[in-house]
Amino acid sequence: MNLYEMALAQFERAARQQHFSDGIYQVMYHPKRELSITFPVKMDDATVRVFTGHRVHHSTLRGPSKGGIRYHPLVTVEDVRALAMWMTWKCAVVNIPFGGAAGGVACDPRRLSKTELERLTRRYVTEMEVLISPEGDIPGPDNGTNEQVMAWMMDTYSMHKGYSSPAVVTGKPVEIGGLEGRKELTGRGLATCVLEAMRLQGRAIAGATVAVQGFGHVGSNTARALQAAGMTIIAVSDSRGGVYNPAGLDIDRLIAHKQAGGQVAGFPSADAIANADLLELPCDVLAPCAYQMQITAANAPRVRARLIAEGANGPTTPEADDILNENGVRVIPDILCNASGVTASYFEWVQDLQNFFWDVNEVSQKVQEIMRRAFGDVYSLSLQRQVDMRTAALMVATQRVADALVTRGIYP
Ligand code: NAD
Questions:
Q1: 32 CB contacts (<8 Å, ≥6 apart)?
Q2: Ligand 1 pocket, Cβ-based, cut-off 6 angstroms
Q3: What is the SS3 assignment for 330?
Q4: Around 255, how many Cα atoms within 13 Å sit in the side-chain half-sphere?
Q5: What is the β-pairing status of strands 330-332 and 307-309?
Q6: How much distance in Å is there from the Cα of 403 to the middle of ligand 1?
Q7: Which of 67, 69, 214, 314 has a beta carbon 3.0–4.6 Å from 289's, enabling a disulfide?
Q8: Residue by residue, what is the 3-state secondary structure of 100-158?
C-alpha cells in the first residue's frame, strides 16, 4: 500500500459511516488538480542536474488550498496526493477556512550545498507559480524544508510580482512576516491533545513517560512541550539513531547537542537505542514525529504505549490501526494531533494579508482554544458513534467539506 492508497482507505472507512451521495463522495475522493515538473538546477561544480517536483491541490471547497512542501529523496506524486488530501481534512477538522494541498521535490537537502538548495527552491517556485498565490494556494514547510526555504520562496514569488508578497507562504522567518512563536505552537498543540486525552482517561500527567520518534521541527518542539507539561521524555530519535534514559532526557540540552553535532546520538548520560526499538518501548505516550508508515502490521502488536500522538503525517498504516484498536491503544490521529501547525499558519497568513501583527500570547491562546474545541468535537463523535478517533476526525472533516460543496453547488 502506498501513502495515497492509505489515505483513500482511511477516507473510505469514514465515508462508510456517512450517507454521502455518490457525486459528493467522488468529488472528495479525487484531487482537484496536480502539476508534476522536471527542472534543471546548476550545481556548484557547474554540472546540471534534473529534479522532479510536484504540487497537488486536493480541494479548494472551504477556501484557498494550503499545504507543506517536502524535500525528500523518496517523495512521489502519490505521497503528495495523500498529504494534500490529509490537509483538506486537517483544515476542516480545526475548522479554518482552507482547502488542502501539498508539494514536494525528490532531492536530499542534506546532500545539497546552501546555494544549490537556494537555486533549486527558486526554480521550483518559478515553475509552480501558475498554482500558488496568497489568494489561491499557500505553501508552508514540511520534511526537509525550513524557514530559510520559505524565505527564498517568498522572495522569488515577490521578485516576479514586483512587490513583496509575504502572505504567499507561511513558516517564514519573523523578520519577513513570520509568526512569533510559531515553532513552539505545533508542539504545544500536540501537547494540548495529549493532555486532553489523558485527562479524559483519568490518567496522571506528572511523570508520565514519553518516547518521541523524529527530532526535527515537530519532534523537538513536541518533546519540549510535553516536558514542560510535567512529563518525562525517556527516548528520542532521528534518522541516525536514538537516545534513551528511563530517568528522563533534558530536552533543551538535547536540542543544543543536536544543533552542534547534527544528531541526537552521542548525547551524554543516555544509552543508544535503535529507531525500531524506540517504537516498542513501554511508555505512556508514543509520539511518532518523523516520517510516514512507521507503525505497521509488523510492529503494531509490540507497541506498548497506551496512547499514540501522531505528530507526523501518516505514521500508522490502516492494518496497524486495527491491531492498535484491538489492543486498546488509543491513537490521536495526525489530522487532529498536528493540526496546530496549520492553525498557526492560518494566523500568519491573516497577519500578512492585513499587515497587522498578532501578539504572541494572543495567537497562542487562540490556537490552543481551536485545538481544544477540535479535540472535543472528535472525541464526542467517537463516543457517540462508537468509532476510533481517526474515523471520528475524518467524519467531522468530510462532513464539513461535503456541506461546503452542497452549499456552493456544482458549477455551472
Ligand atoms: P523535519 O525534517 O524537520 O524533521 C524530521 C525528523 O525526523 C528529523 O529529525 C529526521 O532525522 C527524523 N527522521 C526521518 N526519518 C526517520 C526515521 N525513519 N526514524 C527516525 N527519525 C527519522 O520534518 P518536520 O517538519 O518535523 O516533519 C515531521 C513530520 O511531521 C512529517 O510527517 C510532516 O509531514 C509532519 N508535519 C510537519 C509540520 C510542519 O509544520 N513542519 C506540520 C505538521 C506535520
A1: 57, 58, 59, 60, 65, 99
A2: 68, 141-144, 186, 213-219, 237-239, 275, 289-291, 311-313, 338, 341
A3: strand
A4: 13
A5: parallel
A6: 33
A7: 214
A8: EEEEEEECCHHHCCHHHHHHHHHHHHHHHCCCCECCCEEEEECCCCCHHHHHHHHHHHH
Say how far apart CA 179 and CA 162 lie, in whole Å.
24
State the distance from the centre of ligand 1 to the C-alpha of 410, rounded, in angstroms.
38
Q: Which atom of ligand 1 lies at the shortest distance from residue 219's CA? A: 26
Cα of 16 from ligand 1 centre, angstroms: 31
Q: Output the residue whose Cα is nearest ligand 1's atom 29.
A: 312
Cα 404 to averaged position of ligand 1 atoms, centre (Å):
31
Give the integer Cα–Cα distance in Å for 400 and 62: 8
Asked if the domains 3-10+30-180 and 183-337 are classified in one and the same CATH topology, the answer is: yes
The backbone region for 236, taken as left when phi is positive above 0, alpha when psi lies in -120 to 50, beta otherwise, is beta
Degrees (nearest 5) of the Cα angle 97, 368, 398?
A: 40
Domain ranges of the chain: 3-10+30-180, 183-337
Report angle CA 94, 219, 176 to the nearest 5 degrees: 70
3-state secondary structure of 36: strand
CA of 39 to the centre of ligand 1 (A): 25
For ligand 1, the distance from its centroid to the CA atom of residue 45, given in whole angstroms, is 30
**CATH superfamily to which 183-337 belongs:** NAD(P)-binding Rossmann-like Domain (3.40.50.720)
Beta bridge partners of 342: none
Residues of the chain with pLDDT under 70: none
What is this structure's pTM? 0.97
**59-104 confidence digits (pLDDT tens):** 999 999 999 999 999 999 999 999 999 999 999 999 999 999 999 9
- CATH top-level class for 3-10+30-180? alpha beta
- What would the pLDDT profile of 350-384 be if each residue is shown by its tens digit? 999 999 999 999 999 999 999 999 999 999 999 99
How many angstroms separate the Cα of 163 from the Cα of each of 114, 156, 168, 175? 25, 11, 12, 17
CA distance 254 to 398: 40
Place of cell 522532479: 52
Q: Which one of 87, 107, 117, 143 would you pick to mutate in the ligand 1 pocket, going by the greatest count of ligand atoms within 8 A of its CB?
A: 143
